[in-house]
């Protein structure tokens, strides 16, 4: 195995370090573990609830964002930006098909999305500068200008920042968290110096599985609810710690944590929002009876219920052998892998967008589908490192596309945008963005704008207490707002 093969074979299968921890762990962990003992909640269950610590929001009918993440990056040439006149070294094997927009073509892999292109904004001119998965994800989702891969984020991602800012603006209480991740893209991102309270309420597993449940939500046994409340009251009575000694305010945070945890356990609104069995069979079939389809259906339910930010990753077995979109030749035959995942991807995304419009949610719910970058326009060939879905047996030379940052596509829908348009363009081989170039700052500013956050005016304090802009360079993309 050569060095190039070894690098790609190992990097994408190794576990990734978690978010940077910004405060001492011992006492907070002890307090939360004590709560677990008092209420009967498990420690993993409490960790899933950590996004609620310090959150104080009201139910609302305001704006929401659903970000659908393609980890590893999608080939724009083989989907939304085909180049039929390019040479065979670039264009790929897929035919072009007409879309609902006159003169605009996609490839044959995504016919359902082509049929609803009048509900899309196809942004063909994205670019960024960080070619690695960690740095690329951090640059697009947090605006970090560093092109070097790091084990943990230096800056909080836009999801955590928006969650933090919206939390600060509201009073009262609400049944649902403001930021929920359904198998979320947190491998290379996180709240950084904002603290773990602004991570997502994370839901893991396959929502299409018959036995799928979201733990620690919506107890229906009132006797059990009463037992938990009595134990919490007992803990409070036995708490002899001196509140004056609690200089960091941890006990107050714990009280709030308990209140939020009990709200999730006892509020029927919470359980209903996550319950896919309340959807009719035709709707569930429309999205696809697989993990991606049911993830996006749950995302729609949560946004409709008033959750501000929902993120979900399209990864796992439906991607092919290496469970992501990282279609190097050593990982996948890029064309076989795209064909393998195309039907589930096309169906789920099209169903989500159609559903939002049919339910009259398109003004307040914005959908963005993107990866951290694109894939190289020029096709490369390397020996496969293993057989599997989308990949030939080990040693077989097969086509792939590598990381590409100079020009790629993402799609948008809803959000009150003027849909039915293509924004920007790449050159004749799909290598460089040449019209209406949009960078990470523009991408971030557009997302913030939908949530009513003026990114040109907002500063937050970093680790050292220095005011830091949430977008350093960039403005909302005019065609998208």
CATH architecture heading: 3-Layer(aba) Sandwich
Going by helix content, strand content and strand pairing, the class is: alpha/beta
Describe the main β-sheet briefly: 8 strands, mixed
**Shape annotation:** globular
Number of helices: 14
Tell me what the structure shows.
By secondary structure, the chain is α/β, with parallel strands linked by helices. It has a single domain (43-218, 267-480), classed as 3-Layer(aba) Sandwich (Alkaline Phosphatase, subunit A). 33% of the residues lie in helices and 14% in strands. The chain has 14 helices and 18 strands. It has helices spanning 3-11, 26-39, 43-48, 88-91, 111-115, 133-142, 158-169, 222-238, 250-266, 268-274, 281-287, 291-304, 334-358, 440-450, and strands spanning 64-69, 96-98, 105-107, 121-126, 179-182, 201-203, 309-313, 365-370, 374-375, 380-383, 397-400, 403-404, 408-414, 421-423, 425-426, 433-435, 459-461, 467-469. Strands 6-5-7-1-8-13-4-14 form an 8-stranded mixed β-sheet, with helices on both faces. A two-stranded antiparallel sheet has the order 2-3. A hairpin with a 5-residue loop joins strand 17 and strand 18. Helix 6 crosses helix 14 and helix 11 (281-287) crosses helix 12 (291-304). The chain is globular. The chain starts with a helix and ends in a 12-residue tail after the last strand. The model is unreliable at 1-61 and 240-257 (pLDDT under 50).
Keywords, separated by commas or semicolons:
single chain; 14 helices; 481 residues; disordered N terminus; Alkaline Phosphatase, subunit A; two-stranded antiparallel ribbon; alpha/beta
């Amino acid at each position: 195995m050569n060095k190039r093969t070894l690098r790609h074979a190992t990097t994408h299968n190794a576990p990734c370090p978690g978010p940077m921890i910004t405060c001492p762990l011992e006492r907070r962990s002890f307090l939360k573990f004590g709560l677990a003992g008092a209420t009967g909640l498990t420690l993993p269950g409490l960790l899933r609830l950590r996004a609620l610590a310090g959150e104080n929001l009201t139910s609302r009918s305001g704006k929401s964002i659903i970000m659908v993440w393609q980890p590893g990056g999608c080939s724009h040439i083989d989907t939304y930006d085909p180049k039929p006149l390019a040479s065979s070294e670039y264009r790929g094997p897929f035919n072009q098909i007409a879309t609902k927009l006159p003169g605009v073509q996609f490839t044959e892999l995504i016919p359902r999305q082509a049929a609803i292109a009048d509900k899309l904004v196809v942004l063909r001119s994205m670019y960024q500068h960080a070619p690695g998965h960690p740095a690329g994800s951090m640059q697009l989702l947090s605006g970090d200008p560093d092109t070097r891969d790091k084990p943990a984020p230096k800056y909080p991602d836009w999801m955590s920042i928006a969650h933090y800012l919206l939390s600060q603006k509201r009073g009262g209480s609400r049944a649902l968290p403001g930021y929920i991740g359904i198998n979320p893209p947190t491998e290379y991102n996180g709240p950084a110096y904002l603290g773990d309270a602004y991570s997502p309420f994370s839901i893991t597993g396959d929502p299409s599985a018959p036995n799928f449940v979201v733990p620690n939500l919506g107890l229906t046994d009132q006797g059990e609810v009463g037992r938990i409340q009595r134990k919490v009251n007992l803990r409070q009575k036995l708490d002899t710690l001196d509140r004056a000694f609690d200089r960091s305010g941890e006990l107050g945070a714990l009280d709030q944590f308990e209140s939020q945890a009990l709200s999730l356990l006892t509020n029927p609104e919470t359980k209903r929002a996550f319950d896919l069995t309340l959807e009719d069979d035709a709707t569930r079939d429309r999205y696809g009876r697989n993990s991606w389809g049911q993830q996006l259906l749950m995302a729609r339910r949560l946004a409709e219920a008033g959750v501000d930010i929902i993120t979900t990753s399209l990864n796992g077995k439906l991607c092919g052998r290496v469970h992501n979109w990282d279609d190097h030749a050593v990982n996948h035959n890029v064309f076989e892998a795209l064909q393998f995942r195309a039907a589930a991807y096309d169906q789920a995304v099209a169903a989500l967008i159609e559903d939002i419009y049919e339910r009259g949610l398109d003004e307040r719910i914005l959908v963005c589908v993107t990866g951290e970058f694109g894939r190289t326009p020029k096709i490369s060939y390397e020996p496969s490192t293993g057989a599997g879905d989308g990949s030939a047996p080990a040693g077989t030379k097969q086509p792939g596309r590598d990381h590409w940052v100079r020009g790629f596509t993402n799609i948008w829908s809803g959000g009150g945008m003027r849909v039915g348009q293509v924004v920007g363009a790449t050159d004749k081989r799909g290598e460089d963005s040449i019209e209406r170039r949009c960078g990470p700052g523009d991408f971030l500013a557009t997302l913030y704008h939908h949530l009513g956050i003026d990114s040109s005016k907002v500063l937050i304090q970093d680790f050292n207490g220095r005011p830091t802009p949430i977008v350093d360079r960039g403005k909302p993309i005019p065609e998208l707002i």
